[in-house]
Design brief:
14% of the residues lie in helices and 42% in strands. By secondary structure, it is mainly beta.
Length: 490
């Protein structure tokens, strides 16, 4: 109970000094949009959900907002819906607006052999810092015996934490949706600038251990459709920017020690020469990212395994140099996630002009190890409750299966953790690859009726992400939503 009270006090103390303005003019989202070959928008999803408030017992204030950057591609037998979170506003809770990285996509397609309708969802959950112990199970990968810090980003302004701290107003920048002339190659993305992240030491209850500020957290996506091979390959490029500031609580949420590139400070007072990078090295802090993937096939269950047949669902399995394939229960392959294609990452030097190549680790993790804190996420959970109702309205054929699977993290095909064992606090770049196997017509868009369901299901997955992105080893997850945006390319 004391931990929860301190958590609430800490969040309020920090958030109460933070002013951020939500997006003034969001685009509208209509079912007819999904009849087009592609579009790109920034949408207030709360407004979208309020349109169907008569279907729900839950009500959200008109001052609540959730801005999503959404991209949609509908060509060659593939419908892909992407959502990234810009910011969320809870108008009835001190009018707090915050930014947290949420990235998710849903692909809807017919399988190559049996033309079964399939939904494949993948979600970025969080950055997870860790410190290995003498009893660590997996080298250079966070495990239950390590010290774990779940990085829950809120984009807060920390300028009031100390006079030496800069004004840190996190913001998002969208990378426009573009395509090749033949519309078989697509790219887009999103960057979170000056990103503020709370590090929660995870155990039975989350404990605020530090606040960090990164130059950026960038997600770039490249989609390549190959009608001849009946494949679509999505490459996700993650950029974890340089960590510029680290705040450690000295007296609860009121007094902080501030590390930056010049030393450590208490307010304006220099109290030590150790920089943020010295602190990372001396404390053996390493970095990782956590994602999860799930799939839905209308009349079949799915399972995932490595190339040598090892099951990875809800297991701790090393996958760094292999491919994880997902199949229907009667053996039809529906996707590959290839962790061997890019098993290295770039770690840049302080000038960011040069870099070293380092080996990344990759493994699956037990779903039970990830959980959401209901106190911290109760407002996000309230929002999530509306989403299945929209699925029912927009795409009743997938409603039951989507509610059973995509809204329940314990039903994921697998969680996976990519570890960066050599970490200095400077910029990291890495790009794992996902391939799906689909039935590809030669040209043209897919029929629109299936589309409405995809967009909603995609947002559901975004919602789930925040819940998991807070704390490891707890109870059960639930949570928010995401993004902003730009101009469509036709």
């Amino acid at each position: 109970m004391k931990n929860k009270q301190l958590l609430a006090i800490t969040l309020f103390a920090i958030a109460s000094v933070y002013i951020m303005f939500p997006i003034a003019n969001a685009d509208t989202l209509a079912k007819e949009d999904f009849q087009h070959e592609n579009f790109s928008k920034t949408v207030d999803f709360m407004d979208y959900a309020r349109t169907y408030a008569n279907l729900s017992d839950s009500q959200h204030s008109p001052s609540d907002h959730a801005y999503l950057y959404i991209n949609y591609i509908n060509t060659s037998g593939l419908q892909l819906f992407y959502a990234g979170l810009d910011n969320i506003t809870f108008g009835q809770i001190a009018n707090i607006t915050f930014t947290t990285p949420m990235q998710s996509f849903i692909m809807h397609y017919k399988t190559n052999n049996n033309t079964r309708d399939t939904l494949l969802a993948s979600t970025f959950l969080m950055l997870l810092a860790f410190n290995e112990t003498s009893s660590s199970i997996y080298p250079n990968s966070p495990d239950i015996n390590d010290t774990l810090w779940a990085s829950f980003s809120m984009g807060l302004d920390l300028s009031n934490l100390g006079a030496a701290a800069p004004a840190l107003n996190s913001k998002t920048e969208t990378i426009p949706l573009t395509h090749s002339d033949n519309k078989l190659q697509w790219s887009w993305g999103m960057t979170y600038k000056n990103l503020t992240a709370m590090w929660w030491k995870t155990w039975i209850n989350p404990e605020l251990a530090a606040i960090t500020v990164y130059d950026e957290l960038t997600f770039r996506y490249n989609l390549t459709i190959n009608p001849t091979d009946h494949t679509a390959t999505l490459t996700e490029n993650h950029i974890i920017g340089r960590m510029r500031n680290l705040f450690l609580p000295l007296l609860g949420p009121l007094v902080w020690v501030h590390y930056n590139s010049t030393g450590s400070y208490l307010g304006n007072l220099l109290i030590g020469n150790d920089t943020v990078y010295d602190f990372i090295q001396k404390n053996g802090i390493k970095m990782s990212i956590v994602d999860y993937q799930t799939s839905v096939v209308a009349d079949h269950e799915t399972y995932s395994e490595t190339a040598n047949g090892q099951n990875v669902t809800d297991t701790e399995t090393q996958i760094a140099n292999t491919t994880v394939s997902t199949y229907t229960d009667d053996g039809e392959k529906i996707s590959d996630a290839n962790f061997g294609v890019k098993d290295t990452y770039k770690l840049f030097n302080p000038t960011e002009q040069n870099y070293t190549i380092n080996e990344a680790t990759a493994r699956t993790a037990s779903a039970a190890g990830f959980a959401g804190d209901t106190d911290l996420f109760k407002y996000h959970i309230g929002l999530m409750k509306l989403l299945p109702l929209v699925v029912a309205h927009m795409y009743p054929g997938l409603y039951a299966r989507a509610r059973e699977t995509l809204t329940n993290m314990t039903r994921a095909n697998y969680f996976y953790i990519i570890g960066y064992g050599n970490y200095s606090g400077y910029r990291i770049e890495h790009d794992p690859t996902l391939t799906i196997y689909l039935s590809t017509p030669t040209t043209g868009t897919s029929t629109p009726p299936n589309i409405g369901g995809i967009i909603i299901v995609g947002i559901i997955v975004v919602t789930i992400a925040v819940a998991a992105a807070i704390t490891l080893r707890q109870r059960k997850p639930k949570t928010p939503i995401g993004p902003p945006s730009q101009q469509p390319q036709n």
